Amino acid sequence: MNPESLTIQDDPDIKRMMAGSTLRKVKSRSWKKQRHFRLLEDGLTIWYKSKWAGKGHSTFSVTEVEAVREGHQSEILLSTAEEFPADLCFTLVFHGRQGNLDLVAESSEEAQAWIQGVRKLIHKAQTMDEQERLDQWVRDWFQKADKNKDGKMNFKEVKKLLKMMNVEMNEDHAYHLFKMADKSQSDSLEIEQFVHFYKILTQRDEVWKVFQDYSGDGEKLMLEELENFLRTEQQEEEQSAQHAKQLIDSYEPSETVKKQGAMSLEGFQMYLCSQDGSIFNPELLELHHDMSQPLSHYFISSSHNTYLLEDQLRGQSSLEAYIQALKRGCRCVEVDCWDGGDGEPVVYHGHTLTSKILFKDVISTIKEYGFRASDFPIIVSLENHCGLEQQTLMAQHLTQILGDLLQTSTLDGQVPQQLPSPQELRGKILLKAKKIGGLEKCVDETLTDEVSDEEEMVNGDEESPSAEEPQAEKKNKKSKLSRELSDLVVYCKSVHFHGFEHSLSHAKCYEMSSFSESKAKKLSKETGTEFVQYNTRQLSRTYPSGLRTDSSNYNPQDMWNVGCQIVALNFQTAGLEMDLNDGLFKQNGGCGYVLKPDFMRDGSSQFSPEKPEERPSYKPQRLSIQVISGQQLPKVNQKEGSIVDPLVRVEIYGVPQDQAKEETSHINNNGFNPVWNKSLNFVIHTPELALVRFVVEDYDKASRNDFIGQFTLPFTCVQPGYRHIHLLSKDGMPIPPSSLFVNISISDYN
């Protein structure tokens, strides 16, 4: 074990976790069962089972846990608060879309040991470097396969383990390496010997070849040789000398080689696998956009039906769904409000069997979790179906719970000519809803024109859901709007869209409309340029068709192509569309705001996504990707003996002319170190809007290929040269150490 893991295993909280505890797992007010939990010897895996079940048990890794909440900090533990005191309760929150684990300890000391222990382990897992992480990954596998727990493995067991790890290889070669690693000549490997065996097994020829091309003596890269590599291959013109020094300092493991100002093959491989060697330019991951432009000049990460964890017909409405969206950097959340039975407004998907949550709890959750991932403004999109009385109560909740966070007046007291910037609204929450009159003067109490999204659908949108509203409610549509609620709306007044011409002569910058996906697509195809111009001045929100009752998503790219800022997606549904959203918003510090390209911020822009070549600054790019190899791809099918047949597909999303896909052939039975060496070529007409998605699939000639992993990023964030792509799961979570090794070149297309 490395020294750090020795110190952490001496920690009293960790010792207590390793000794094991009986904790009560709570799923609902009626489902509360005792389970035996303990931390395994690897210091990373938590194992638990029912006291009575025979062999059945479950495990999860600390790396899957994002945070530990203390006390009654989940809906389930709040609902059982009378039964279990807060000092016994804690919640493990997982990354991605995996549900929480609510636990109750038998004493407050026991609860504290688990709360503090898991937090220490999360911190340790987060601070490991690439090499430690890989070693830990190999150790985890060893622990899994060491069935009799004697800490040793003979060659037969090692072969079985390699198969579990997706490694298909020549037996003689493997045996030769096994003997080399078996220093004690006991015909078995202990855990650290296995880690060493795995290292020599995974030495990568394709990295060695690149290293040889630049190394004079074949042993190391001297400073100027590394500089030459950075200039020639990685296309780093400026400061390559300074960068070469930094890379040696950061990644060279051997002090002797470091003192010579050089880099060994091992250091070179570590650099290529690190963030510096990643396909995503690390500088662009930081906050770097100009945040002082009007809100309408940014793409804004936005969620639809934020309250749902599943589908729209019988899914569960949950505060956790808001927490998950906000921690993914979402900046516009939707709140669907209806009159509650006991006078308190509730949030749910109207006229369906989805469960209900209280409006005031949603607002408290937004306040608590809203600014953890980003401090730029949040827009609360209110879908208001309440009567006057409960609307007034909603206004009270908003002002009392949010206080100064809620922006209830213009910033300078003047009527705005353009929207304020994300910078000016830092830490503020804006309400998007209907408003009586404008900011200029307040008029009569009744509404004449404003309609909500759902009404717009009833007003003849062909995507109107079959669960239409009851007649009585339709008649009552022109109902009164509470003055108190109306007064809280400043920069996001919901209005009906009357066409681009009308908005050019009449619209105010603080008025915004919502478009169903079909309406938005129709407008972008027929009047793309006008839509781009409109979106320089005003915000527009697009939302999925009411027919998508399974909470599926539309492709957001079509909406971004015409500059729509608030492209609302079902964050609860993993897949291509959310990959694109995550990919676009990964840049700029993951703050949920991305500055649109300059030709989408100019009110007189003539840009049309249908005719990109007519843009004055038209400069198409050629993108060439050599897909070299893959590393440690995860198994799709857990059946013993099944090994993947991987292929790589590169997909481009952007203006219609840029949409393209190219793929490699598949490699039989090798998820461990497949080599493709295949070049895929693309021409990109509007680089500023393009996204590049790498998908790895398990080829199946009889049925649909299975998804293995993906990575999506903006074309403008791609680093050329030899790069690794660290793959993500379907849920958008890292799956280390799975990666692709590619060589990328970008040039002007003439």
SSE inventory with pairings:
Elements: H1 3-9, H2 12-19, E1 21-26, E2 32-39, E3 45-50, E4 58-61, E5 65-70, H3 75-79, E6 89-94, E7 101-104, H4 108-127, H5 130-145, E8 152-154, H6 155-164, H7 171-181, E9 188-190, H8 191-201, H9 205-214, E10 220-222, H10 223-232, H11 240-251, H12 255-259, E11 262-264, H13 265-273, H14 282-285, E12 298-303, H15 319-327, E13 332-338, E14 346-347, E15 357-358, H16 359-369, E16 378-384, H17 388-402, E17 429-433, H18 453-458, H19 471-475, H20 483-486, E18 492-494, H21 500-506, E19 511-516, H22 517-526, H23 528-537, E20 540-543, H24 557-560, E21 566-569, H25 576-585, E22 593-595, E23 621-631, E24 646-653, E25 660-663, E26 675-684, E27 691-698, E28 706-714, E29 721-728, E30 734-748
Parallel strand pairs: 12-21, 13-16, 16-17, 17-18, 18-19, 19-20, 20-21
Antiparallel strand pairs: 1-2, 1-7, 2-3, 3-4, 5-6, 6-7, 8-9, 10-11, 12-22, 13-14, 14-15, 23-26, 23-30, 24-25, 24-27, 27-28, 29-30
Helix pairs in contact: 2-4, 5-8, 7-8, 10-11, 11-13, 15-16, 16-17, 22-23
